[in-house]
């Protein structure tokens, strides 16, 4: 897995977030403050700009640059959380990047979010999409599955995890202020996390 694949991952995520921006914002309107789509679209536009202006020379540089841009430009709760996924993943990643190495580093990123957001699976947050994706990747590595198939399995797990937030009551973030009224809506951060994983599957060949 080379630098170009990591750049393509963020470019494809930017495309999917742009496409689904209004949908993500509508999800956030139901249980938050109606800014998740615009926040993330702004942040990923900045990520793409940074990757063009300062061409990264390694996968680690892509992750660090993307994470930093997300922290600077997304704002809200999700900016620092997404930023820490990719910055921590960058810290943990060893080159050359194998699927096993990717999986282990991604998991460190997910653990960083859980620690920073003090969120566990079931709290109705992005963790409910990211943690199943990480688990799916680890299982794919264990089973010796190819890269594309592994990323497709991770994308499916993330999408299912996002849908599974619908009946949950939020225990973290703005949505938790609604108590039981947060039940019945998909968590916007879980939905956008599923887009990050779908983008990965789209660019893997
Ligand atoms: P804000 O709520 O500040 O407006 P966003 O709308 O951009 O930020 O992001 C909201 C998303 O952030 C939520 O849908 C949820 O997935 C995620 N989130 C919020 N708080 C936490 C937390 N403590 N841990 C993990 N994820 C969280
Ligand atoms: Mg919001
Ligand atoms: Mg906000």
UniProtKB/TrEMBL annotation:
GO CC aspect terms: cytosol
SUPFAM superfamilies: DhaL-like
An MF annotation (GO) of this entry: glycerone kinase activity
Domain DhaL span(s) in chain numbering: 4-202
The entry's keywords: Kinase, Transferase
InterPro entries (alphabetical): DhaK_L_YcgS (IPR012737), DhaL_dom (IPR004007), DhaL_dom_sf (IPR036117), Dihydroxyacetone_Kinase (IPR050861)
SMART domains in the cross-refs: Dak2
GO biological process, one term: glycerol catabolic process
Name this polypeptide is given: Dihydroxyacetone kinase subunit L
């Amino acid at each position: 897995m080379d630098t170009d694949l990591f750049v393509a991952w963020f470019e494809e995520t930017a495309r999917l977030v742009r496409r689904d921006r209004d949908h993500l914002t509508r999800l956030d309107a139901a249980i938050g403050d109606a800014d998740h789509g615009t926040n993330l679209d702004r942040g990923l536009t900045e990520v793409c700009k940074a990757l063009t202006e300062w061409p990264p020379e390694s996968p680690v540089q892509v992750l660090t640059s993307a994470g930093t841009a997300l922290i600077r430009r997304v704002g809200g709760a999700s900016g620092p959380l997404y930023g820490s996924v990719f910055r921590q993943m960058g810290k943990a990643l060893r080159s050359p990047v194998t699927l096993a190495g990717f999986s282990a580093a991604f998991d460190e990123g997910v653990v960083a979010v859980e620690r920073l957001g003090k969120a566990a699976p079931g709290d109705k947050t992005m963790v409910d999409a990211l943690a199943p994706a990480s688990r799916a990747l680890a299982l794919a590595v264990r089973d010796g599955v190819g890269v594309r198939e592994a990323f497709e399995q991770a994308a499916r797990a993330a999408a299912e995890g996002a849908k599974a937030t619908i009946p949950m009551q939020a225990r973290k973030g703005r949505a938790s202020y609604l108590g039981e009224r947060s039940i019945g809506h998909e968590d916007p951060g879980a939905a956008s996390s599923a887009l990050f994983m779908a983008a990965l599957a789209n660019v893997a060949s």
